[in-house]
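re: ur msg from earlier - yeah i can do the fructose -6-phosphate complex, just paste it... oh wait u already did. ok heres what im feeding in:
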Amino acid sequence: MKVIKVLNEKEVGKVAGDLILSAIQSNSSSILGLATGSTPESTYEYLIEDFKKNKTDWSKVKTFNLDEYVGLSPDHKKSYRYFMNDKLFHKINIDIKNTHVPDGLKIENPEDYDKLISKNGGIDLQLLGIGTNGHIGFNEPGTSFDSLTSVVDLTAETIEVNSRFFESALEVPKKAVSMGLTSIMNARKIVLIAIGKNKAEAIKQLINGNISINWPCTILQNHKDVTVIIDEEAASLI
Ligand code: F6R
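and the outut:
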């Protein structure tokens, strides 16, 4: 696992953004796995700036997002599909047909998402955030390392942390469709980003903890190509 410590959020976005851009430069048909939440915002801003300046061509890139809230339609303002369109897809020249976010309303056969990813050749680079409890995707503590895409329950902690995006914790969906830990481990390269003091314990577990389902992120110790990019606060316990 390669760990890159930088000064602040903007630098996290630059270093992660440059890794994504170099994947696209070496293969214009790259398959990217993408994340939502606060952490990737500086990365997406960096990619949009690059698009304005350098006209990086996204027209053949395909993307697969990690997760979506169950019960929210793609046009719901709090859905992750809406987030991705708003924060990235509508601001670069990606073909929206090449972008995939699990559908929060069609949850009958969630594993079809893994089949679609492998039909497209598998993920070249997976961008990940991390929860304060060590979740990656929405794979909460206790999730089997064998998991594929499935409908998962969010913990009270995740609902509370994510209530900042909603009017109140009561409005946060209690379930999500999430790529599983095996779905994530299948990516050829993984880039995990974290910002802020509240991620410090999860980062410590990710890097130095015993591999355990109590800290889902620790499975990444078994992956051969992981780059962790963190600011000073997230790095404060390592
Ligand atoms: C989002 C996702 C989650 C987040 C994590 C951190 O697609 O899969 O694992 O990465 O909850 O969220 P933020 O970045 O908001 O702290």
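cool cool. Residues 35-39, 66-67, 129-131, 135-138 surround fructose -6-phosphate (CB under 6 Å). ping me if u need the other ligands too
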